[in-house]
Amino acid sequence: MRVIVLGAGVAGVCTAWYLLEAGHEVTIIDRAGAAAEETSFGNAGQLSYGYTTPWAAPGIPKKAAKWLLKKHSPLIFRPDGSLYQLQWLKQMLANCNHDSYNLNKERMVRISEYSREMFRRFEAQTGLTFEGRQKGTLQIFRQPHEVEAAEKDIEVLAAYGVPYQRLKAEECLQYEPALKGALPKIAGALHLPNDGTGDCHLFTQKLAALCVEKGADFQFNHTIERIEHTNGHVHAVYASGQRFEADRFVCALGSFSRPALAELGLDVPIYPVKGYSLTVPIVDEAASPVSTIIDETYKVAITRFDQRIRVGGMAELSGYQITLKPERRETLEMVVNDLYPNGGNVSRALFWSGLRPMTPDSTPIVGKTRFDNLFLNTGHGTLGWTMSLGSAKIAADIVCDVPTEVRSDDLGLARYSA
């Protein structure tokens, strides 16, 4: 078949890879000048298979109300002037109950654990490197009540067979020795040994090169203008004045999936949740992180690459505008300097922001639409890097009419109308 993939972020390029592996002719269309130039460019760098948790959870409304009053808040809400922002928030709040949380958690863990296996297979097959490490995630808690609250997440980890270890503050040093000076600030921690790290941008660009070797046609600097369709069937995509025909189409446009598909009458419940990151050059390896650390109080992740530290976090609901705000940089600098004061030079850090495509139930949308040849792989929120290969393989199998290796019937757009 001829297949067009819309979007050359990590979700789109991974989907293209598996379609090429299946023997199809693939064209990838993206408005940027290269792969992974938007949301996949500067994410936190975590492969968080064990730290896969819905944002929509019991207790979140109360926590959010408190966060909004803090100076270094992990959550920022600014009205964007749209009714949809309020509708999406209402949908998300409707998922903040135990039953919905357990359902969504199971779906997310299913994809993440499958993605972990797909990364294992992929690295064995290709040998591709991306500054990756397999040293786990250390989730640190600054307050005793955060340690207590983590017991609920631990119950879920145990239920799904995800390995974990509870740690006292001093025990953190066996995994992150440079935290020695920060021990008085740590009340406890959780270690997730199966998690990994890596540079998503580097991975996606290298994978795009492998796709080209397999015959993929990347159409960069092409902005999608409209989708030609009749009677529940897509015929072509118009991008930058050109018409592209195919037998099947996959939308992997992240936060821009909703506006791109609106003309088809598809209601794709994705909202752009802005995140920020710093990429800090290392000046002292011994004073730097070994793997990835999540500061639960500020919801900030600190991840080690080869000679850089990636610091990422915050969730800002303010529409599609990408603005680098100094106060967000201040928060990221505060957290990394508090935990690793001598590891990197924050004055030379690259400051970045991107739009995470968030669904109201935190679960990506992977699968069919009511158009017989249009499929989705989008809405991964903060876990696009973690779920990338897993959700892409699921999506490619569905496109190819091949039974998926894990359950996928509840991952599609239809779940919102059921």
Number of alpha- plus pi-helical segments = 9
Sequence stretches where pLDDT stays below 50 over 5 or more residues: none
Mean of residue pLDDT values: 96
Query: What is the terminal separation in angstroms?
Result: 31 Å
Radius of gyration: 21 Å
Taken in chain order, the helices and strands follow as EHEEHEHHEHEEEHEEEEEHEEEEHEEEH
The major pleated sheet works out as: 9 strands, mixed
Instruction: Please state the structural category.
Output: alpha/beta
Shape: globular
Instruction: Please estimate the helix content.
Output: 25-40%
> How large a portion of the residues is in β-strands, by DSSP E?
15-25%
The number of strands is 20
Protein name: D-amino acid dehydrogenase
InterPro entries: FAD-dep_OxRdtase, FAD/NAD-bd_sf
Family: Belongs to the DadA oxidoreductase family.
Domain FAD dependent oxidoreductase: 2-397
